[in-house]
Hints:
Layout: H1 4-13, E1 52-61, E2 64-65, E3 68-69, E4 84-91, E5 97-100, E6 105-111, E7 126-130, E8 135-141
Parallel strand pairs: 1-4
Antiparallel strand pairs: 1-2, 2-3, 4-8, 5-7, 6-8
Amino acid sequence: xxxxxxxxxxxxxxxxxxxxxxxxxxxxxxxxxxxxxxxxxxxxxxxxxxxxxxxxxxxxxxxxxxxxxxxxxxxxxxxxxxxxxxxxxxxxxxxxxxxxxxxxxxxxxxxxxxxxxxxxxxxxxxxxxxxxxxxxxxxxxxxxxxx
Length: 147
């Protein structure tokens, strides 16, 4: 049985709580080009497992991470600048959930037992949606990519 907070989360996931418009964009009747779209994105070198110095595990369950209530003012993990490690993220909830890390980017190794889809084979700051009971493994790189 869902409690009220779980129900609100579910409604939010289904976009049924979208009741407020924050921005409306209106284009001019005539527009001019400001440049061209690149034909290719920059290539990204995959990180190497041999460079990983740590393994960390995170379990998402309700409003907790590793059995600790989510708190944006608390720092639970610190990572040495430039270090590489493997983070395993398990979703123990019955609903899908994203995993987002502030001030760093990472590469996804696999989602479940599968390699990541093309859109996440890059530097990202949020793990792909973790479906109920799923697992994601990521290389972390605690500094933002400079190019």
